[in-house]
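Following the same procedure, backbone shapes were mapped to integers, as reproduced here:
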Amino acid sequence: MIKKSKIYILNDLKFMKSNLLLILIFTFIQFIHGEEILCELKGSYETTYSIPSRNYLQDIGDALKNFTAGPYTPFLVDKAKANISDKWDKAEFFVNQYWNKDDVSGEITLVDYEVDPAINWLLNESNKEIKRGERSISLEESFTPNTPHPSLDEYVVDYYKVINSLNFFTGKGRIEGNIFMSGKEIKNLKSPKVSFLARGQCGPAKKKY
């Protein structure tokens, strides 16, 4: 019977340790990155700079003002839009959503999203709330009403709500947003307001080039 020398045994141990280290590194990388999901959305966005014919917030009471703290109700937004103006410019709108699914827990989170054309009024400083359900997950962004816009000092944010969502069963993503602003001064009532909606299919995020 041939016995291995101490040198061979040491080499075997080093080889096993190297393999174990590689496995641990690979597992750690997989844990960090998880599964990346890309949703390519297409829709439309509407903008207006028209001077409201009347107080569009007062017409629907405090419901819209307190909207950021309550459930999303499209009816109130549509009524506010009608009160603002009947002249909204409409154009195509594209969005890329980047989600991440944890390989261990299966938890899905929104990493980032890109909009085209760019909307300068989107806020990084928004209040963010994750809502998880059996069928979908959504990230709702809001901003305190009657607060100066952080990067546009001449404007006050009347209403801000952006919702990104992903349906687990259909594999489709969605984004809906409404941002209404007014000028701080009466002479600057021509202030921007935007409303957008886009939907699309999701799949594994892979580099094409």
